[in-house]
Amino acid sequence: MAENTVTPPVGSARPLNAELDDIHDGFRRRHIAPASARMNLPSQAARLFDCRLGGRRYRSRRSNPCECSLLHHSSGGSMYHSLNRRHVAGPMSVEIRSESSADMQKIEAVTTAAFLNAPHTSHTEQYIVNALRRAGKLAVSLVAETDDIVIGHVAISPVSISDGTSGWFGLGPVSVLPQHQRRGVGSELVREALQILCERGASGCVVLGEPEYYGRFGFQADPHLLLAGAPPQYFQAISFDSSKPQGTVTYDEAFDAQR
Question: 255 near 155, Cβ under 8 Å?
C-alpha cells in the first residue's frame, strides 16, 4: 500500500484513492471508490486511482495546515526548502526531513515497495518521483526516517489551472513501507508537506483521493476545480489564501513516466 496517496495523470499528481485502508479508533475499515467511478475513465484519469496514503487517524496539534498564519507572513523565498523535524507516530520516533541526494535510491525502493501489492496501480509511482526530480518539479520532497532507515516519502509538485491562477500544487505520491503503514506515518508526512506549502506562500493544493481521508487535512471537493476524467467528488482542494481559482487542473507530464 502507498499509505494512501493517489497519483494523478499528466496534469495531475495521481491523487485518486481507489482503495484506502484506514484505522479509526482501533477498527479497520476499507474505503473503495465505487466501481462506476473507476470505469470508462481516460487512461490518465484511471491512473489517479493508483496511489494510497493509508495510516490510522492521527491526532495532530493542527487539523488544518492553514493555521500557519499564512495571511500574515512574507511570501518571499523559495518553495524549495530544508526541513528537519521529529515526530512521534504511535510507539515510534519518526524524523521527517527534506530528501538529500543520498536518499534517491532509498525513496525509489520505498515507493516501489509501498505500491507493490496495491490495487489499481500501474506501479510507476517510483518513476513519477524520479521524473519530477529530474525536471526540477519536486517543490516538496520529504522522507520519514526511523533508526536511520527511510520508511516513507511524500512528493508535492506544481500544477497548472486553466484560468491562469498560479501558486497551486498537487499532493502525491505518498509512500510508506508496508510494515510501517497504519501507524500515522503517512498522515504526518502529508501534514508536514502541506504546512511547508502554506509557510512558503503557496496559494493552495489539490489531491485526487478518498474524501473522508483527505478531509482530515482540510481538503474539500470544489465544483469550480476539475480534473479531466476524474469523478468530481474525489478531486479535492485546500486553499491557503483568498484565491478561488476556477478551471481544469493539469499535473506535470512527469506523471506519464513509465521508466
Answer: no
Confidence of residue 2 (pLDDT cuts 50, 70, 90): low
CATH code for the domain of 190: 3.40.630.30
The span from the CA of 199 to the CA of 95, in Å, is 19
Is 14 inside any structural domain? Answer: no
Burial classification of residue 147, based on how many CB atoms lie within 10 Å of its CB (0-12 exposed, 13-18 middle, 19 or more buried): exposed
Q: Confirm whether 183 is domain-assigned.
A: yes
Domain of 128 in residue numbering reads as 19-256
Classify residue 128: in a domain, yes or no: yes
Q: Contact 33/65 with Cβ under 8 angstroms?
A: no
Whether the pLDDT of residue 160 is over 90: the answer is yes
Say how many domains are in the chain: 1
Q: Which amino acid is at 175?
A: S
What does residue 236 show for φ and ψ, rounded to 5 degrees? Answer: -125, 160
State the distance between the two ends of the chain, measured CA to CA, in whole angstroms.
20
Q: What is the pLDDT of residues 71-91, one digit of tens each?
A: 222 333 344 445 666 665 556
pLDDT in tens, 208-241: 888 998 999 999 999 999 999 999 999 999 999 9
Report helix, strand or coil for 222.
coil
Q: What are phi and psi of 240, to 5 degrees?
A: -100, -5
- Residue 10: inside a domain: no
